[in-house]
Amino acid sequence: MNPFWSMSTGSVRKRSDTEEKTLSGDLRTSPLRASAKKQLPSIPKNAVPITKPASPATSSQSTNGTHASYGPFYLEYSLLAEFTLVVKQKLPGVYVQPSYRSALMWFGVIFIRHGLYQDGVFKFTVYIPDNYPDGDCPRLVFDLPVFHPLVDPLSGELDVKRAFAKWRRNHNHIWQVLMYARRVFYKIDTTSPLNPEAAVLYEKDVQLFKSKVVDSVKLCSSHLFDQPKIEDPYAIIFSPWNPAIHDEAREKMLTQKKKPEDQHCKSMHVSGLSWVKPGSVQPFSKEEKTMPT
Amino acid sequence: MERMSWLSKLTPRAGGQRAPRSASLQPPVTADPETCLMVFKNHWAQVLRILERRGSKPAPDDLSAVRNNTYQMLNLLAEDRPCGDGDKDRSQGDGDMACGPILEFVAAENLLERLLCWHLQGDFTEERKVEQLKLYEMLISQARQPLLRHKPVLTPLLRLLSVCAEPASAPLENSLVLLLNQLCVSVAREPAILELFFHSHTDQGPANLIIFSLLIPFIHHEGARGQQARDALLLIMAMSASNRAVAQSITDNSYFCPVLATGLSALYSSLPRKIEVRGDDWHFLRREDWIGVSSLVLFMNSLEFCNAVIQVAHPLVQKQLVDYVHNGFLVPVMGPALHKTSVEEMIASTAYLDLFLRSVSETALLKTFLRFVLLHRHDNMTILDTLVGRINSNSRLCMVSLSLFRTLLSLNCEDVMLQLVLRYLLPCSHVMLSQKRAVRDLDIYGKTAAKFLSLIPRCCRPESPPLPRDREEEPPSRARGHGSPGGDAPAAPKPSTPSRLSFFMRQASAGPAEAAVPRSPGPPAGSPSRPGPRDEVAELDRNYLEYLRDARHSIDRCAWACRVWSAPYDGEDPRAPDPDGPPGRPPGPPTPRTKKRGLPEEGAREAPGGPLGGDEPGAGGPGPEPRDGGTLVNGAHGAAEPGRPEGDVVVKKVRRSPQGEGEGGRGARNGAPRAQPPGWEPLPSVDSLLEELLARVPAEPPGAGVSIETFTEELREIEAEMQNGGVGGAPAASTEPPEPPLSHEEEEAFASFATLPEGDAGTGRAPPRPPDPLAQVVASPPRAVGPPPSQPFTGPFVSVLFGKLENMPHNSLYVNFLLTGLVAQLACYPQPLLRSFLLNTNMVFQPSVKSLLQVLGSVKNKIESFAASQEDFPALLFKAKKYLIARGRLDWAEGPGAVPALRRTDTLARSRKPSLGELLLRHANSPTRARHAAQLALQGLRDGGLHPLGPPARHGEALRVRNAVYCAVIFSEFLKELAAIAQAHAVTSPFLTE
């Protein structure tokens, strides 16, 4: 029915790692994609759209003659393309999902697997300026202010600007911001910090810094099951392991992993043809299979 | 699995036919075996008395007595069951298993053999043969124990069959085929019997051959008999899959493959030469078009059978059959047929080829068809190039050719795309050197889409500016997310994505279940009132979302299908084949220096210094002397290829005459480096093919030879026809009268919905039709048309398409439907080389290479200047839209059934849609209602707009205006479609291509 959907599920699966099993089916990464198909994603637990738009008759946006009326589609698609690029990057332990309400707001979570911040699970939100891609760089704000030299201890905002002083279209992409966000937990930079305390501690008293980090990681983990900070159908929600729901989902993920091919074939009955030998540009250059005896 | 379904399909039928007969016979005696045996012996004694009365001719009474007793006996034999302990001492090799008492008696007495001998001695009339065949058929189908493994049963059976080998009356043939079918069913149930067949020789050779040689003549028969024969053969074929010996004997000792394949030739020859066309928009054969044409049905049955055989048979058989289809049908028959000189015949053969390509589902068979299309050279030109050239011709042939290419493109076949487009783009000589890297760039900000949309002619944009209602109705909740993350209170709502709201509203109203159903973007679902015509037309202006959705779907499909390709075609992989050639050289016509590197065409080209290498403009033709200095190389329009050397035509014509030698010459040249994969024995003509066949027949008794001879004869006829058809004659062009610009039907159809005001039409000047007489096309095929060697050339296909596109305002509505559909289809391919060529508007091309954007720009200008010259253009435009919507709806109502119901319906259903078509029928939620509405609308148009045909010139002018107005509508929609495709490329899921 919706081949695309199953595929994007596969994408998440591909990257998932045992430590993320706690993630429920909420971690579907393609509402944008789904929206391109004009469908709601299939399994947004707790994510039933609350406000169904009342009157669909408002689609009057493009009765005007200029192609300017298509502008919204450009923004929409640019962000969708950005999202596709994120998926292509396969950043380890980083998941994002655009919000239901605006393509300019993405929910995300980072799993830190090594180093000082090991076992950290940090939820965050990415805010993309509405004049994207011509505006400033996107902002990335952690739900809880992680104890980190580059994270504002009050707002939880990560200092993205230092890496992307000027946002350059065609050069800068949102996946770079996410990659940067992941990197700061592995390579700690203390110059001109947003959290001077953390910076100083890291320089002067690593032990104390470490213990503060551990506290911070614990704090984040203890709030993992909190309601999402921003109410949105596509917000990322964690819940305790519930066999009734999650066992089946996990099972599905694991079994699908084995034969993604078959699965796709079922949903898309098309296969192209090729008799070109790799490296050749001659049609029908592939040798025929040897005759079975 | 397929095979299973074939078998299960067959078996019940065999059973079903058995039932009535056994009812008509006496009910089998249910008694203990001993009694049965006694009764049996009793009958036999009576028969024996007659049999032993030697010398005298049997009296009629004797005959009926034997007949009655035999009936009883065979019934008893059929009911005979194997007993518990067998007689292990029997010396006959096949008697390992216990057999029933009656069977044992039959064997001991050699009873069946003696009976048959008695029949053969006398006057064995057809009637009596039929009787015997029926008896055996009953015996085999109803036996409770395996009978065929016993020589005393098998030998007389085979003998009987060999007696029936000669052609005979229908009843005899029916019984014969039925018996053979039954035999095959039994063999399929118990494959071990097959081994026996190999070892039991009759006076006609091995027994398995007899089954074959008897069945083969019926392969192409129509009706039940042919079907039974085909089913029976298919059973054997299925068995061959797991039994190499069987496969070997089919390929080495039977004529199955050649007869099947060359039979296609015979059947093809009886197809209509001219397709009676109903509608002005007809452009391909749908199932309902051909299901009523018996010769076509016959052909399709056989083609389908070929397909089925290839599906189930052993690779040996598969390969042989495929080779024979190529050498015995495609090359000798289809090739010349496609090159007939009359337009009608060209249309027919092109439509047939399209139908065949759509019908064949087995890759091996499809491969051979494609191989033929791509590589086979007829008249020194590949079929592909001939077909490409035909796009340039007058409207019906153009439409049929466009449909064929639609089919080809829908295969997502690398080899096809390579030959059509990619190989010309591979060297990247069409882009500036500095741009090579940009080939892979994705346009993620929608710049390309914006450019395409900006080309919508001003006159086609809706006049009234919209009410900025979006923002007013924005629910407050929407803005929440955008607030400053630091503070609780959301900042002032930002107009971040203005379309978002409506976007989601549509989304909400269209659940997943509805996704497949075409929806109107406008009126809410369930709204009882249909929008008025004004609204409907207005809706065309806001259907962009639909285009985005379709584009997304098409690209996903295409990208997914192209996973099997050998390379990504991203400018790096694969490399152009000829890196050290002069920069900017296309891979097309090689210079003598580069020849050895091999062109992807059937050997012929590669022979260094082939006898007439002059067909390559770069090599032997006179120096480049552009014909049409103003036009760019790949933006050629009209039949005349600009940039082609003038002298090439001459070379071409010269080459045409010595065709006879061409065939032979090719065979010789086939020894060149990469000529043909092993196994493709070049068989130049059907004649020699069949002669070779016949030579292999070792002193064949008439029975087996008959079928072949018939076919030889038929094929000779075809050959003769082909000869007369002007293959070797003078250049087709000179003899071909120019086609009338439009077919009568088309004229009529246009007239019927004419909505043009008379006043404007009366200028009296002839329509400025582009010169597209077919003759020129035939004479100057784009294949031979090379660019001057140093000029980048994006290939004949692109060149022809662009030329045709540039001419859009003059094309008929239907040509434009198909044409834009084809270009859109091409644009959906995800390969960066192709995508960047068509859709990357930032790319800087070599000055001589025209871009799609340029072509479209020139169309835009033409439309705008036309609109400026036409006072009532807005009114005309409105009417045209109204008509197109009504028409589209009608189409849609017929839609699902109208799709060719062959195997690849799925693909085709999608590709069938001409770009605009589907969007024009979004409203058709209820087929009947839609049809009704459409009919009303059409009626209205007819009544309101009917105007008597004016004098020809005036009519021509009206036609010109109509074409231009329709073009304006389609062009605008096409631009939206392209824009949507460009946008959708940027968001293709990486999982589709990985």
Automatic annotation (TrEMBL), chain A:
Q: Where is the composition biased (Basic and acidic residues)?
A: 14-23
| Bias (Polar residues) | 1-11
SUPFAM superfamilies with a match to the protein in the record: UBC-like (SSF54495)
Question: Localized where?
Answer: Cell membrane; Cytoplasm
A GO CC term attached to the entry = plasma membrane
Q: Pfam families of this UniProt entry?
A: UQ_con
The identity of this protein, by name, is AKTIP protein
**Key words, A-Z:** Apoptosis, Cell membrane, Cytoplasm, Membrane, Protein transport, Transport
Q: Membrane topology type, per the record? A: Peripheral membrane protein
UniProtKB/TrEMBL annotation, chain B:
Tell me which Pfam families the record gives: DUF5917 (PF19314), KELAA (PF19311), RAI16-like (PF10257)
Q: Residue ranges under compositional bias (Basic and acidic residues)?
A: 468-477
Q: Which GO terms describe its cellular component?
A: FHF complex
Q: Where is the composition biased (Pro residues)?
A: 579-592
Q: Where is the composition biased (Gly residues)?
A: 610-622
Show where the FHF complex subunit HOOK-interacting protein C-terminal domain sits. 794-887
Where are the residues of the annotated region Disordered? Answer: 1-28, 463-536, 568-686, 724-748
Highest taxon of source: Eukaryota
Single GO BP term: endosome to lysosome transport
- Record's InterPro entries? FHIP, FHIP_C, FHIP_KELAA_motif
Alphabetically list the UniProt keywords. Answer: Protein transport, Transport
Annotated function: Component of the FTS/Hook/FHIP complex (FHF complex). The FHF complex may function to promote vesicle trafficking and/or fusion via the homotypic vesicular protein sorting complex (the HOPS complex). FHF complex promotes the distribution of AP-4 complex to the perinuclear area of the cell.
Q: Which family does it belong to?
A: Belongs to the FHIP family.
Subunit arrangement? Component of the FTS/Hook/FHIP complex (FHF complex), composed of AKTIP/FTS, FHIP1B, and one or more members of the Hook family of proteins HOOK1, HOOK2, and HOOK3. The FHF complex associates with the homotypic vesicular sorting complex (the HOPS complex).
Protein name per its UniProtKB record: FHF complex subunit HOOK-interacting protein 1B
Provide the species name: Erythrocercus mccallii
Ranked from the top, the taxonomy reads: Eukaryota, Metazoa, Chordata, Craniata, Vertebrata
